[in-house]
TrEMBL record:
Protein name: Aminotransferase class I/classII large domain-containing protein
Cofactors demanded by this protein: pyridoxal 5'-phosphate
GO-annotated cellular components: cytoplasm
Organism: Flavobacterium subsaxonicum WB 4.1-42 = DSM 21790
Molecular function GO labels: kynurenine-oxoglutarate transaminase activity; pyridoxal phosphate binding
Classification via Pfam families: Aminotran_1_2
Key word Secreted present: no
Entry keywords, A to Z: Aminotransferase, Pyridoxal phosphate, Transferase
Coiled-coil region(s): none
Keyword Transferase: yes
The Aminotransferase class I/classII large domain, residue ranges: 25-366
Origin organism lineage: Bacteria, Pseudomonadati, Bacteroidota, Flavobacteriia, Flavobacteriales
Family: Belongs to the class-I pyridoxal-phosphate-dependent aminotransferase family.
Length: 378
């Protein structure tokens, strides 16, 4: 048979984590916390397992959790969302991203993706026969030039995939970015897929802007969010999508026929937890402090930091240290210096290499400090 994804040989995040484990290195590569979620949340799961949750949850998600999501969106974004017709709970944001692409992209349709970016968009577009059109942001500030971006839109453009805060650059889309996007898609039938999994990790007083907050974008947007990122539970695989009722109907058709529904006890526990606490509102301060501890730990090295406005990733330029390609350099960092990072070239479909590495700072302070001191030897 002919592979639909011939360019996929391995998963860069799993590869780097595997190598970090093999060499017992400090793993700042794959984006996940090395600390536990709230004990209260884990206790709720244990309780929920004894509360009749062992059979299928409703296809679109537990009503109690969809209600909590609607409350959260109102509180954080000042956007009214109907829990019945506009919220769908899935098995992680990644599932909802795939479903959105599968539901709306027809063979031959063009989908604009922005790079560097998370690596699951392009494969999903290719699997359904769409055509990925890559808009490249330029280092070091990774801003979108909307005049140039406009030239990527054709009558075949079916979807634009945006992400803010962006993985791996940590760059935020601003109010002006949203207005420019709204202007561009006005009068078209283009759908926006908005990846907002790092919505609560915005620093230095900046605000998170979602297309859901802009009336001209709201009706054409599927916005995808992650409890994995927000509650430190990336392994539980629970995320959600918000979209208008018309879009949600189609999205749920794909969800229904892939996984049908997400884990029942986990959904119930998260719903009960969110009813009791909004501790996630502390995430900006929590992660800003980690960013700063890590930057401070790295200040004695020859790595040059780029500005991180959000997400839990910090980019560093290593061109003062080596001419090696970033993948080879990362492999050497693990083997010789005991620290794992992600080569940013792997987050471009053409492996564009600016000699940048991505480090995840969702780690305990001791690890961030130890990584910095190991890298001073370089
Ligand atoms: N989002 C995480 C990252 O960018 C990893 C996700 C995954 O490994 N599936 O590192």
């Amino acid at each position: 048979f002919k592979s639909k994804l011939p360019y996929i040989h391995s998963h860069i995040f799993s590869y780097m984590t595997g190598l970090a484990n093999q060499y017992n290195a400090i793993n700042l590569s794959q984006g996940f916390p090395n600390f536990e979620p709230a004990q209260q949340l884990k206790d709720l799961v244990a309780q929920c397992l004894n509360q009749n949750t062992s059979q299928y949850a409703p296809m679109a998600g537990l009503p109690a959790l969809r209600n909590q999501v609607a409350i959260k969106i109102q509180k954080c974004m000042n956007v009214g969302v109907d829990a019945d017709t506009e919220v769908t709970i899935g098995c992680g944001a990644t599932e909802m991203i795939f479903n959105t692409i599968a539901a709306f992209v027809w063979p031959g349709d063009e989908v604009i993706i922005i790079e560097p970016g998370y690596d699951c968009y392009r494969p999903a577009i290719d699997v359904v026969g769409g055509k990925p059109i890559v808009y490249k942001m330029q280092a070091p500030d990774f801003k979108i030039d909307w005049v140039k971006f406009a030239t990527y839109i054709t009558p075949k453009t079916r979807m634009i995939i945006t992400s803010t805060p962006n993985n791996p650059t940590g760059v935020l889309m601003t109010n002006n970015d949203m207005l420019q996007l709204a202007q561009l898609v006005k009068g078209t039938d283009i759908i926006i897929l908005s990846d907002e999994v790092y919505e609560h990790m915005v620093f230095d007083g900046a605000a998170h802007h979602s297309p859901l907050q802009y009336p001209e974008l709201r009706e054409r947007t599927v916005a995808v969010f992650s409890f994995g990122k927000t509650l430190h539970i990336t392994g539980w695989r629970i995320g959600y999508a918000i979209a208008s009722p018309d879009l949600t109907i189609e999205l749920r058709k794909v969800h229904q026929n892939t996984v049908f529904s997400a884990s029942h006890p986990l959904q119930k526990a998260i719903a009960l937890y969110l009813a009791e606490t909004d501790e996630y509102l502390n995430l900006p301060a929590f992660y800003q402090q980690k960013r700063d501890i890590f930057l401070n730990a790295m200040s004695g090295t020859r790595f040059k930091p780029l500005h991180c406005q959000g997400s839990y990733f910090q980019l560093f330029d290593y061109s003062d240290i080596s001419n090696e390609g970033d993948l080879a350099f990362c492999e050497r960092l693990i083997k010789d210096y005991g620290v794992a990072a992600i080569p940013v070239s792997r987050m471009y479909s053409d492996n564009h290499d600016d000699k940048l590495l991505r480090f995840c700072f969702a780690k305990t302070d001791d690890l961030l400090i130890a990584a910095g001191s190991k890298l001073t030897a370089l």
